[in-house]
Amino acid sequence: MRKGKRVSGNLIKRSESTQFALVSDIQRFSVHDGPGIRTTVFFKGCPLRCLWCQNPETLKYQNELVFSAERCIACGECAKACPNQAIRFKNGPIINWTICKSCFSCCQVCPSRALEPAGKEYSAVELAEEVLKDREFYYPDGGVTLSGGEPFSQAGFLIEFLIILRREKIHITAETSGYFNWEVLKQVLSMVDLLLFDLKALDERLHQTLTGKDNKLILKNLVKVIELKIPHQIRMPLVPGMNDADDEIKSIAKFLLGLGEKEIWLLSYHRLGEGKLKKLNTELRPLGLKSYSDQEFRAKAEIFANAGLIVRTFNFSIFQR
Questions:
Q1: Architecture of the domain delimited by 66-117
Q2: Which of 69, 96, 160, 285 fits a 20 to 30 Å CA distance from 313?
Q3: Quick check: 8 pLDDT over 50?
């Protein structure tokens, strides 16, 4: 981590902050989103629609309503407050998503926070001040991680935000799907210390099926990252029955080795994101998949290792054969 002095007062004049972004969550004391202890910012908006998305509340670029039924005390105030009659009661509130305008009138009267906006709007200055509350915990290796959603969809905001963090000597990590316009992101990329580059699938048709987009732009950007020697980690979420076929794994390993890459980080699928789907108006549906057992996940990792890659996970590493 770059050492820097403490901040006192405003980081920059608030009148200089012209950019705003929707943030779905700020996760403090993160240890899996880059080196050291980090503050991870989850931006709203993503161009992909991965079937297994762990953060479906970050997919839409617009703010939206989130309903957490387990918090509801059935007071009925939300139905009274809704100007569009989008909420009715039958053993609890039922939301008619087709007429809900996400005006958030219901949120203002909900005493138990069962109804909340998915995102909160921040200016670049406000967000910088928020994450810098944790700076004492960043030493020696930590910092701030940009996540989402796709944080690189917020290019204008990030330029202003990262200029502040760079001035304050904060280590910056960014997690990306790789689906971004390189020319637009040049300045942002120059301010990022570490890139966590997600790779979902190599086969183009498979990638289209799993994410709603082909991977031509993603692979093109990955090649540029490697050629320009931008510090990075390649990460792949392994999802049972989706992108973990042996032939696909071998193809990915061969592709990465051909680019001069030596290692890959594997992220084991979990079902935590499925619980969020029922809270949102989303086209995604639960996949009903089982998570890997430890033995199953290691067996998949062994295929990468046998092909010649160093494999790293949050629980174990396998070095080249």
A1: 2-Layer Sandwich (3.30)
A2: 285
A3: no
